[in-house]
């Protein structure tokens, strides 16, 4: 689903369900906190691991990333509409938020699929460092919030 359509749905949702905006904001802040904790787990691992990888995770993603309506609505509670890198539209299988320097979406509010899914190498390093269980706990907490988001947003979609 493209960003323009997600934004249209978000604006419509805000008009139809203004009473849900405070709860959506709380969930967005919870997601942000969890993503910051996940980034801290990754900060010493991913620079060397990801730069050496021949098949980047963000290559092969949908044009506008992995935003679901729920992810996007939470994102919009904390940030403005994300700018899509137009030059990536020519590269059919690259995420439109992938720049030469990496993802330019805020580190604390990326689509949940981008945060929770790891390659085998990253999982192996997390295991070796004894951080795999911590990542799993953070990921499960995100799953719980994702369920709450779906209940808040998904049940109201047409």
Quick summary:
It contains 7 helices and 2 strands, in the order H-H-H-H-E-E-H-H-H.
Mean pLDDT: 84
The global form is globular
SSE run: HHHHEEHHH
Q: Per DSSP, what share of the residues sits in E-state strands of 2 or more residues?
A: under 5%
Low-confidence stretches: none
What is the domain total for the residues?
A: 1
Helical residues, percent: 55-70%
Give the biggest sheet.
2 strands, antiparallel
Question: What Rg do the Cα atoms give?
Answer: 16 Å
What is the count of DSSP helices, taking H or I runs of 4+ residues? 7
Total strands: 2
- Structural class estimated from helices and strands: mainly alpha
How do the strands of the widest beta sheet line up side by side? Answer: 1-2
Distance between the termini: 15 Å
Task: From the structure above, extract its key features.
single chain; 158 residues; mainly alpha; two-stranded antiparallel sheet; globular
Tell me what the structure shows.
The structure is a single chain. The protein is mostly helical and 158 residues long. The protein has one domain. Helix content is 55%, strand content 3%. It contains 7 helices and 2 strands, in the order H-H-H-H-E-E-H-H-H. A hairpin with a 2-residue loop joins strand 1 and strand 2. Helix 2 runs antiparallel to helix 7.
